[in-house]
Structure formats: structure tokens, C-alpha cells
Amino acid sequence: QVKVVESGGGLVQAGGSLRLSCVASGGTFSSYYIGWFRQAPGKEREFVAVITWNGGADTRYADSVKDRFTISRDKDKNTVYLQMNSLKPEDTAVYYCNAKSTITVYEYWGQGTQVTVSS
Asked: Which of 39, 46, 109, 113 could form a disulfide with 6 if both were Cys (CB 3.0 to 4.6 A apart)?
């Protein structure tokens, strides 16, 4: 059973940084996208960033986080990171890791980690 577990959230002041981790287990991820989504109170879950597991680690970002957030992966540790710099209060949300197969309909979500940015 594929499982993804997030960690690294917390409380930070505006302008600060946090690094989130997503550890994936229970499968081989050569045909997966691993991404980050977030959900703020009263809002729908939205896309943040995604990376391909294999190949050149292609990445894509939401416009709202481009140039501030960086997604990366460590295949030896089965971990995807989200480095978040220059954080803003509007980045406050629960951040979720998502593993989505590129060849089946399956996708897996973590439980989420809270990020709170104070002004």
C-alpha cells in the first residue's frame, strides 16, 4: 500500500523559510508525479508544485509561489522536499503531499502539515 507522510510544518514570521518533507513508501514511484497542494481555511485545495520522480525531475509551480518555493527529490531517501522562502501570511494553509500515478488512476494523499505565517 502506497503511503505518503508529510512533515516540517510550523509557525514562522513573514519573510521566513520552512522546508517540508514528504516521505513515500509502499511502492515504486518511477511512474509517479509527486506534488504539493495546500488548503487554507474556507478555501478549496489548490496546486502548489509538482515534480516527476524519474528522468530530469521536471518541475512545475503555481504562479503564486514561483521564485519563492522550490520542489526537489532525493530518490535514495524516497523523499520530496518543498523549500519555502519569503513566506507570506497568505501562504498559511495545510500542505498536502500527493503521489499520482502517470499510468493508472491511482493517487495517494498524506494527512497534511500545518504551515502558519504570521505578519
From this structure: 113
